[in-house]
Design goal:
By secondary structure, the chain is of the alpha+beta class. It is built from 10 helices and 20 strands. It binds flavin-adenine dinucleotide. Flavin-adenine dinucleotide binds next to β8 and α8.
Length: about 425
Amino acid sequence: MSDTPAETKPSFRSDVTVELVKHAAGDSDVLWAARVSTAGEQSLEELSKDPERSKGLINFLMRDRHGSPFEHNSMTFFISAPIFVFREFMRHRVGWCVAGDTEITLQSEAGDLHGRTIADLYRLRHLGPATRLREPESVGGGHVRCYDEDTLTAQRAPIVDVIESGVKPLIRITTAEGRTLRSTVDHAVLTPDGWRKAGELAVGDAVMAAATAPHPAQAPVVPGLSRGDDASVARPDSIVSVVDDGEEMTYDLSVEGPWHNFLANGIVVHNSYNEESGRYRELLPVFYVPGEERKLVQQGRPGKYEFVSGSAAQQEITQRAMEDSYIQAYEAYQQMLAAGVAREVARAVLPVGLFSSMYATCNARSLMHFLGLRTQHEQAKVPSFPQREIEMVGERMEEHWAKLMPLTHAAFNTNGRVAP
Ligand SMILES: Cc1cc2nc3c(=O)[nH]c(=O)nc-3n(C[C@H](O)[C@H](O)[C@H](O)COP(=O)(O)OP(=O)(O)OC[C@H]3O[C@@H](n4cnc5c(N)ncnc54)[C@H](O)[C@@H]3O)c2cc1C
C-alpha cells in the first residue's frame, strides 16, 4: 500500500483534535486503591454502598495530597495538534516508565537482535556529540523488536523517541525464567489476558516474554534470530516475586505503530507517547492558522502580561503570512521528495505550525498535574499562563476525564486544581 498522501494541497485548521481512544479509569479505581491500603476492601460493591463517604474520601485524598491512589487508572488520548504544541506536551513526564538499566531489544533489518539499556538509548539520542553515533544499523538502526498483539509474533518497529521520565518509585517483578522488570506500577505489561498494569500483577500471574531471549544478563543476544523463527513468538513466563524497588530516574520509549510495544529485559511492555513519524511517512500538509477568537497581541512586560485581540489588519497579516509560508515550505518539501531526498532530511523545511498526531497515555494524577500547568481556571490556587493552543488540548482532555471520573474531577477543582 502506498504511503503517499492523496492530497498534497495545503489545508489550514484553527482547532485541535482530542479523542479518548482507550481507558480504564473511574472514581472507583481511586477508592479501591485507597481503601485497600486502609481497610483491605476488595469488592466494588463496597465502594458504591455509600456515595457520600466515597466523595468525602476522594476529597480528603485530594486535599491532603495523598497522590498514589490517583495513579491506578489509565487513559489513552489521540491528539492531533501543531508540532509546537507537542514540543510543550513532551516536557511532561506523564507516562509510565522503566528503570534506566532496563535492556531494550533492538532488531536490525536482517533480524539480528542486540540489547542496549534504555538509559544508553536516551543518552545516544539526546546528549552530546554521541548523537552522531545514534543507533547504527549494526545494532538495530533505531528499531526495536515488538510483537503483533493478535498473533504474538515478533515484528520490527522504529523508535520515535526515548524519553527521560523523572525520578519515580519502582517495583521489581521477577519471573520463573529469571527475567526481571523494574517499572512504575502503572506501566502496561502484556500478559496472557492482555494488557495489565505492573502494579496489579502478583505471584502466579504470567507476563508475555521473548521465547528464546531470556534476561540479557544471561543471554545478551540471540544471533541470527529472525522474524520467521518459532522463537519469535512471545510466550508466558510466570511471576515468582513482586517487590518494591526504591526510587530512581526512569525512561520510556515511543515506538512507531501499529504495535506500540517493545521488549524490556525480555518482557513485552507498552509505551506511553507515540508521535507520528516524519522519517517513515510523508507528512500531510495540514497547518495551523489561529481562529478569530485567538488573541494575537501580547501586552505588558515579561512575567506580567496579557493577551488582547488583534486588529483586523493584524489578523489579516497573520493569516496571509502563515498561509504563504506554509505553502512555500510544503512545495520545497515536495520538490526534495520528488528529487529522491529522504523524508527524514526533507522534513527539516517544514514549520512547527504543521499538524502532527500522537497517542498519549496517562493516569489521573499526571493529567491533573498537566491541567494545573496547561489550563487557566478561575478555581486554580496557583495560576498558570499556558499558550492557548496547548490549553485547547488540555481543555478537551479535561472534558473526557471529567466524564470518566466526576468525583475526582470535582475534588480537583474544589482543592484549587493542584495535583495531589
Ligand atoms: C506556562 C509555562 C511556561 C513554560 N515555559 C518554559 C520555557 O520557557 N522554557 C522551558 O524550557 N520550559 C518551559 N515550560 C516547561 C516547564 O518548565 C516544565 O518542563 C513542564 O511544565 C513540565 O512540568 P513538570 O516537570 O512539573 O511536569 P511533569 O514532567 O509532568 O512531572 C510531574 C511532576 O513529577 C515530579 N517529577 C517528574 N520528574 C522529576 C524529576 N526528574 N525529579 C524530580 N521530580 C520529578 C515533579 O514533582 C513534577 O512536577 C513552561 C511550562 C509552562 C506551564
